[in-house]
Each structure stands twice: as structure tokens, then as C-alpha cells.
Amino acid sequence: MIVVPCYNEGRRLPVSDFRRFLERPGAELLFVDDGSTDNTVEVLRGICAGSEGRATLLECGKNGGKAEAVRRGMRAALLSGAAYAGYWDADLATPLDDIAEFLNVLDARPEIDMVFGSRVKLLGRKVERHAMRHYLGRVFATAASLVLRMAVYDTQCGAKVFRAVPATAGLFDEPFCSRWVFDVEVFARYIRKLGSSSAAAARIYEFPLMVWRDVAGSKVKPADFLVALRDIVRIYWKYMRNA
User: Which of 80, 119, 181, 225 is least surrounded by CB atoms within 10 angstroms?
Assistant: First the structure.
């Protein structure tokens, strides 16, 4: 089951892409509306209505931020009995086709609990990022790696899939202390659960994406970089200081 957090996405939701994905055997989507004030809920209800029960909608009622929307959706997905649960950005900067590739990794490697997209601009791949966001992202990734004591190239790509096992159960139970870099907090919780960064690193797989593109309308601004660094310190203090 894939969780898709949404907030005021009515104009840019790629409806046809979601409908095509739902035609695949076993495909399931859980849309989480984070208190949208536009027509997002109506658009999502339309997708769900034609899905024969393979797409559902969780309405949060009021805006709590992406971190809380993902948390609520992932908690529901992991408790649903699905073998895998993940979350995906609503703008499909990472195409839905990559979900199958993530699942192939999990099927082929039973020791892996988590697969997440990594935006590495290699030859033969189409990874399109604004230069400023790319360089700020490299600084942030370095800070995150130092805090987690684990070399991570890209913590913030909104494409992640988890195996539903005891090690991932509970990662989304309590609210995050960070509204901005909750992905790093997920890693920190996982490290704490397994007991060490090295144990966690052995069970996480970074998947270099073939295609990723900046989609107009992103709610993340360059100034948020400073907030993200502040939250990194909060995550270190809460999870990693005594690890």
C-alpha cells in the first residue's frame, strides 16, 4: 500500500497516472488529505470512486503538515496487513513505475527492510533538480549523515517503501518532532530500534532513480533549509545523543 499525502494539490494532481497505476494487479493507494482548502478532496474522491476499493481516502480535517499526514497514513498502512507500505509525493516527481523496482529489491533481498529513492544525477538518468536546491541538499545530506552516523546520499526524496516487519512496526506511532525533515527522524527511530547505525545501514537500500524532476508548485522554499538544520539538531538531541 502506497500512502500519498496531499495538501492543496487539486490543480496539479496527475489523476490519469494514478488511475493507470491502480489498474495493476495488487496496486493500492491511500490518499491522505491534510486539510486542503481547494478542491483536492473532490479530486481524490473521484479517483477513489472509480478504483473498485483499491484507492481510499483519509481526511485529516485540519492542516497538520506533511509529516503528520505521512505518519497517519503510514501507521494505517502498516496496520492494514499489507506486506509492504510506503509513501510517495503527490506530484509524482518520482514516477509510480519505480514502485515495482523498489518491491523487486525487497523481494530479492529479504534482509532489506527499507528502500528509498536517491536523486543521483548519473549519465543515462534523467534527474532534473534546480541547482540551488541540489547544492543545499548536498550540505543537508552531509549534516544528516553526521547526525545519523550513517552515510546517506539523499534523505529527503519523497519515495520510500518499507517491509511490514517488527523492525518497522511502530516507526510511525508517535508524532514527529520535526515537521520539515521527518524522513531523517524515521531513520533515527529505526537506528534506535535496531540498536546501532551500522545495523540499520545493513538493512536499508538507496535506490538511484532513473527519472526525477522538480515539479512546479513545490511548497519547499530555500529559506526552509535553515529550519531543516535546526530540526536536525533536535533529532540528534532526541534520538542520537546517547546512541
Answer: 80
